[in-house]
Amino acid sequence: MSETPLTDATAAGLRADGSAAPPPLLEVRGVTKSFGHGRRRLTALDGVDVRVERGQTLGLVGESGCGKSTLARVVLGLERPDSGTVRFDGTDPFTLKGKELLAWRRRVQMVFQDPFASLNARMSATDLIGEPWRTHRDIVPTAQARERRVRELLSLVGLRDSDAHRYPNEFSGGQRQRIGIARALALDPDLIVCDEPVSALDLSVQAQVLNVLSELRERLGVSYVFISHDLSVVRHVSDRVTVMYLGKVIEHGPTEDVFDRPVHPYTAALMSAAPTLDVSGQAQDDEIQLRGEIPSPYDIPSGCRFRTRCWKSEARCAELAPPVVTRDGTADTGRDPHEGLCHFPLGAGPTEA
Ligand SMILES: Nc1ncnc2c1ncn2[C@@H]1O[C@H](COP(=O)(O)OP(=O)(O)OP(=O)(O)O)[C@@H](O)[C@H]1O
């Protein structure tokens, strides 16, 4: 039996009144990406589906090496999938060329984890923010327009006009990340991929930067893919969450559903390790200890790839690929499904094999 992927799509693409829903801003379906050859070949993404609606934030979580950055690179058009499709506003960006490709590249931008590493110390804030305009010259054709736009962008991220001519070493970590955000906004994108955008910052500064991101969403309608190891941050910023394990999506759904009623034991374990969170239905207040280490990506376990660390694992988990289930063990008919891949989902008895 081949493994069934979680198809992260609104049911049949229909609204409640039966009319066709507009395509999501981003729709990744069945994307597989491998690296290397022969015995040194590993599958970093295995039939991955994700969806980002306009003006929404998708949280992407999972341990190191599960494929989050590879997925981000695919979304940014930097890595071509081996199979599967990427649709941005209904168009496959990998089919674009020339001017169309350049126009699309504006629409998806990135905010990096470490503002210290990602900013060139010898460039002023103005130069850093305006660097993307070197490639996209038509956006601010004159020096005057450029100066005006830099001031607007500084103001949008909560910095002052006088900051325009300062250098990275004159800014705090939080201010540098604000410059990183202003730079991502310079091309007026529809989607920003944020890869651990606050994990290098002090706790008190993290909240300020997260507020900047959420204000920008309100004001500009920008969408985010938000990658983070910090589940309390993901819960705070995300409308929907996708959980990955060893290159596969093992659970996805609306944030509150996934956090309050995880389907997959792996999701529950991740959440139980996050100090402020309560996993209802699980050992309250106790961290779920997973057995062993993450398996090698060169040697993915048969059946359910999480089984070697799962406390619910039985013989079936090694023999058969896990089915798609919801918290209640039934197919979800709602518009925004909350699903997981598991033989023994939480909150339900064993599913039919
Ligand atoms: N260019 C590459 N060549 C070979 N292997 C790669 C390459 N890029 C990623 N990988 C492998 O693919 C798997 C997924 O990596 P990826 O960086 O996407 O994970 P991640 O979830 O982003 O991890 P982290 O949280 O540590 O950044 C890992 O096993 C990694 O070693």
In order across it, which strands form the biggest sheet? Answer: 5-6-7-3-8-9-11-10
Give the biggest sheet. Answer: 8 strands, mixed
Percentage of residues in helical conformation? 25-40%
Number of strands: 11
Total helical elements? 11
What descriptors fit this protein?
353 residues; alpha/beta; eight-stranded mixed β-sheet; three-stranded antiparallel β-sheet; binds adenosine-5'-triphosphate
Polypeptide structure, described:
The protein has helices at residues 68-75, 98-107, 115-118, 125-130, 143-156, 173-185, 203-220, 231-237, 255-260, 265-272, 315-319; strands at 26-35, 42-52, 57-61, 83-88, 108-111, 191-195, 223-227, 240-245, 248-254, 324-325, 339-341. It is an alpha/beta fold. The chain has a domain at 250-275 and 299-348. It is globular and about 70 Å long. The chain binds adenosine-5'-triphosphate. Residues 35-36, 42, 44, 62, 64-70, 297 line the site of adenosine-5'-triphosphate (ATP).
Secondary structure: elements and pairs:
Layout: E1 26-35, E2 42-52, E3 57-61, H1 68-75, E4 83-88, H2 98-107, E5 108-111, H3 115-118, H4 125-130, H5 143-156, H6 173-185, E6 191-195, H7 203-220, E7 223-227, H8 231-237, E8 240-245, E9 248-254, H9 255-260, H10 265-272, H11 315-319, E10 324-325, E11 339-341
Parallel strand pairs: 3-7, 3-8, 5-6, 6-7
Antiparallel strand pairs: 1-2, 1-4, 8-9, 9-11, 10-11
Bound molecules: adenosine-5'-triphosphate.
The site of adenosine-5'-triphosphate has 13 residues, from β2 and α1.
